[in-house]
Structure to design on (233 residues):
């Protein structure tokens, strides 16, 4: 079974500072990894995805994440925080499951990290 | 705009009642997923449909059921509602059966049980 651990339920940074949101995963098969962002009263929006191509993945809004297999990590970074980045961020791992002659992708989310940006 | 439409946005009802949540997937997407989001449980996967057939089940209670119709829209039925069912319910869709394809989420239905 796969799982995701997001270190730090709350992260606070100053505007212009580096954003680092940590994510570690556990999976018995090669995973696909995603970061989503959720703004208040909205659904989850895809930030970026890792699907076994380049290990450094660039996403929307200046975010990027690096897949490190040896560390089972997929940390999310942004060089300079903006006030509009304040939101909750979710790391998720997906694996293909074969069952009963069919297959599907099982997506498991971390508990989320709330990012606060101070002026 | 993700292209996934959920209605209604808010639902307020009482314990013991039954409600239906509706989801229209992005154009071209064949899979629909349902999730429950609450403060104590986080985001929990409930069920997935692919092209009208149930494909995967997660932590879905027996009081809950879902279906996907020929036009690919989906409905989640919640019955004998309890206070603990109060949560945000999200629908997501993807082109295939999942895995490497990202899921695209609607804005959710906020269910409040009084």
């Amino acid at each position: 079974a796969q799982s995701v651990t997001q270190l730090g339920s709350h992260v606070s940074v100053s505007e212009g500072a580096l954003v680092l949101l940590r994510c570690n995963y556990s999976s018995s098969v090669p995973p696909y990894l995603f970061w989503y962002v959720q703004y208040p009263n909205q659904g989850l929006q895809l930030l970026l995805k890792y699907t076994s191509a380049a290990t450094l993945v660039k996403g929307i809004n200046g975010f990027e994440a690096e897949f490190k297999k040896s560390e089972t990590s997929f940390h999310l970074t942004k060089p300079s925080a903006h006030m509009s980045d304040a939101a909750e961020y979710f790391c998720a791992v997906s694996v293909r499951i074969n069952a009963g002659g069919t297959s599907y992708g099982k997506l498991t989310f971390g508990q989320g990290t709330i990012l606060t940006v101070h002026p | 705009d993700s292209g996934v439409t959920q209605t209604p946005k808010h639902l307020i009802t009482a314990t013991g009642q039954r409600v239906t949540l509706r989801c229209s997937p992005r154009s071209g997407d064949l899979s629909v997923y349902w999730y429950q989001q609450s403060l104590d449980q986080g985001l929990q996967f409930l069920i997935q449909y692919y092209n009208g057939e149930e494909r995967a089940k997660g932590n879905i209670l027996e009081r809950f059921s879902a279906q996907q119709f020929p036009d690919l829209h989906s409905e989640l039925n919640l019955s004998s509602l309890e206070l603990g069912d109060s949560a945000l319910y999200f629908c997501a869709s993807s082109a295939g059966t999942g895995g490497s394809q990202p899921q695209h989420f609607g804005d959710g239905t906020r269910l409040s049980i009084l």
Observations:
- Chain B has a mean pLDDT of 94.
- The radius of gyration of chain B is 13 Å.
